[in-house]
Amino acid sequence: MRIVVTAKYVPDINTERGFEDCRVVRDAGEGTLNELDENAIEAALRLVEAERASGGIGPDDGEVIVVTMAGPDGDVALRKAFQLGVDRGIRVTDDALAGSDYFGTAAVLAAAVRKLGEHAPVDLVVTGMAALDGLGSVVPTLLGAELGLPTLNLAKKVELGPAEGSARTLTITREIDDATERLSAPLPAVLSVTDAANQPRFPGFKLIMAARTKEIEVWSPADLGLDPAVAGVAGARTRALSAAPRPERAEPEIVTDKGEGGVALADFLIRNDLV
Amino acid sequence: MTNRTVLVLLEPATEVRTSVLELLTIARGLGRVEAVAMEAPTVEVLAQLGAYGVGCVHQAEIARAGVHVSGDERHLPAVVAAGLAAAVRHTDADVVLLPTSFAAKEAAALAAHELGAGLVIDAAAVREADGRIVAGKRVFAGAWDTECAVTTDVAVVTVRANSAVAQPAEAAVEPVTEGFAVEVAPSPVALLSREVKADTSGRPPLDQAAVVVAGGRGTDGDFGPVEDLADALGAAVGASRDAAFEGWWDSYVGQTGVTVAPRVYIGAGISGAPHHRGGMQASQVIVAVNSDPEAPIFEICDFAVVGQLADVLPQAAAEIRKRRP
User: Fold this and answer.
1) Does the distance separating the beta carbons of A237 and B150 come in below 8 Å?
2) How confident is the model at residue B165 (pLDDT cuts 50, 70, 90)?
3) What distances in angstroms separate CA B193 from CA A175, A180, B18, B76, B145, one per listed residue?
4) Is A102 exposed, middle or buried (0-12, 13-18, 19+ CB in 10 A)?
């Protein structure tokens, strides 16, 4: 069981986020592993652990590899992934990749997955449901399309069928918009999981210590046989025009309830023509 | 007005949701508006589309290896995407507009991938400038406005609900329905089951409602007062992620749940964690009811009551019912 998790280095949502020259400000001190990628890592670790427990693979077999596309600051995200227990961390990096759109991002990540597949088959690619900076939720779908693999998106529950015959079946349950769906696909596949899929583990002391010095592999687009022009600003199908902070809201009107709080609330709505 | 053709996804085609009416309104400002459906629209739907200026509904006739595709499978994002891509080629359309549901985002991504088109997700405004489609987005929990231009010939844009006020066309038209063939590739993904959640509440859908009342941990699991106020206002009901994970309510407002941008958002017993704010901060007017005067939601609201929601909400509901004209 060899699983690749794609991860993103994003500004911490608990900090003041912003733009400079239409680019997201990514300060090393305030950047972090996209929280939703922890669910992807957790899902991958659990699948490998379950395989070991069932004797499907040996106790030292199975691998979870995290790939991110980022500048050097992105190592923060990989260190966090190491703390959670992943085996390898790879950063695909090049100045020309900055400003990638959804398609460029998917093309780069797909090239990294393909390269990993040259050495041994990749059974599964797992992603989070969205990156908390862009919130597009479309890279998993595009990654599947780039790789030509079946894609199961937004899983709340993940079940891996028994290893019999030629291909194993992955089945997910998802709640999408107003419907609950069960979908299945043969491995290899791309899977995205929601934040309801699992509760990511807390890193143990040993892993935290080991994560500090664990080797991060750095790959260039050339290592992937990729023309950087397919990604970055050059390859993007959209061009940023402007980014401006919204004006701050006016001071709120705050009423402390002394028995008339509900009437005050109704009055606010009525007098502002909101009813 | 340019001679641009704008396709709007009508999915499902058995009803015209408010979000679709908003899309049609935006689309009329960009060019000639036509709709794409994966199934036959009903007579009522056609009349509504006509009122909004839709001259033609392109109805996909979907087949896989010569076999007609019907039923739930037509609603799978991969199938919808194939239909959209074929419709763009068939009509030589320049713009595709979709709502911002998870299924629509998936379909939009696949269609854009197939077409080599530029993709914008969750736009709050769409306009034309210098011959390009320009989309505005509100990002970082409503704190920043950004704009980008689509540089490819075709633009695929998902638009968030409440981005425009739905307005019928000046003159209604009589839409025609035209079939077009769509061949979808054999899919390794199997749809084992699909259950549409029956909504018997009579309330508007959370993602499209003009008024939202949401309950959080402070409800302690009792959504009665939240529902009471929502019904007095004709509002949708939502929860915080915590409350939904507790099993107190189905759908939650938040950056991983439903993103809402209603005219009025009322949060009750919700502290306003970053996760929640990311899903509602673009609301026009924010009202908070919380017993904790230090709750972070008070920093982003327009009006707040510090108090027990079990007292405040029913009183507000009763007052509104009494005073509503």
Assistant:
1) yes
2) very high
3) 12, 8, 27, 12, 40
4) buried
Residue written as token pair 């395989």: A51
Interchain proximity B188–A257, CB inside 8 Å: no
Only one residue has tokens 């509504």, namely B48
pLDDT digits (tens, 9 = 90+) for A145-168: 999 999 999 999 999 998 776 789
d(CA B273, CA B251): 17
pLDDT at B216: 97
- Kindly list the residues from chain B whose CB atom is less than 8 angstroms away from the CB atom of residue A244: 144-146
**Distance, CA of A158 to CA of A161 (rounded, Å):** 10
Q: Which of B32, B43, B275, B54 is nearest to B172 (CA)?
A: B54
Distances (CA, A) of B39 to B7, B9, B12, B13, B44: 16, 11, 8, 6, 14
Asked if A177 and B103 count as a contact pair (C-beta separation under 8 A), the reply is: yes
Which amino acid, one-letter code, is at B57? V
Q: How far apart are CA B230 and CA A237, in angstroms?
A: 42
Where do runs of H (alpha helix) occur along chain A? Answer: 35-53, 75-84, 102-119, 139-147, 205-213, 232-235, 261-271
Closest partner CB to A141 (pick from B110, B117, B194):
B110
Cα three-residue angle B216-B140-A31, rounded to 5 degrees: 100
Q: How many residues does chain B have?
A: 325
CB count within 10 Å of CB A209 equals 12
For residue A7, list its beta bridge partners: A68
One-letter-per-residue 3-state SS of A24-70 = ECCCHHHEEECHHHHHHHHHHHHHHHHHHHCCCCCCCCCEEEEEEEC
- Residue pair B124/B160 in contact (Cβ under 8 Å)? The answer is yes
CB within 8 A of A170, min separation 6: which ones? A124, A152, A158, A159, A160, A161, A184, A185, A186, A187, A189, A191
pLDDT in tens, A14-57: 888 999 988 898 876 789 999 999 999 999 999 999 999 998 89
Cβ atoms B137, B124 nearer than 8 A: yes
Residue B101 carries which DSSP code?
-
Q: Does A120 touch chain B (CB under 8 A)?
A: no
What pTM, to 2 d.p., does this model score? Answer: 0.93
Residue at token pair 């499209």: B208
**Whether A186 contacts chain B with CB within 8 A:** yes
Question: Would you call A133 an interface residue with chain B, using a CB distance cutoff of 8 Å?
Answer: yes
Is the complex ipTM higher than 0.90?
yes
Q: Is the peptide bond before B12 cis (omega within 30 degrees of 0)?
A: yes
Rounded to whole angstroms, the Cα distance separating A168 from A166 reads: 7
Query: How does DSSP assign B57-84, residue by residue?
Result: EEEEEEEETTEE--GGGGGSHHHHHHHH
Inspect the interface and report whether the beta carbons of A196 and B311 lie closer than 8 Å.
no
Among candidate residues B153, B26, B10, B17, the one with its CA nearest the CA of residue B80: B10
Pairwise CA distance, residues B250 & B202, whole Å: 15
Q: State how far residue B60 is from chain A, nearest Cα, in angstroms.
A: 22
| A251 three-state secondary structure | coil
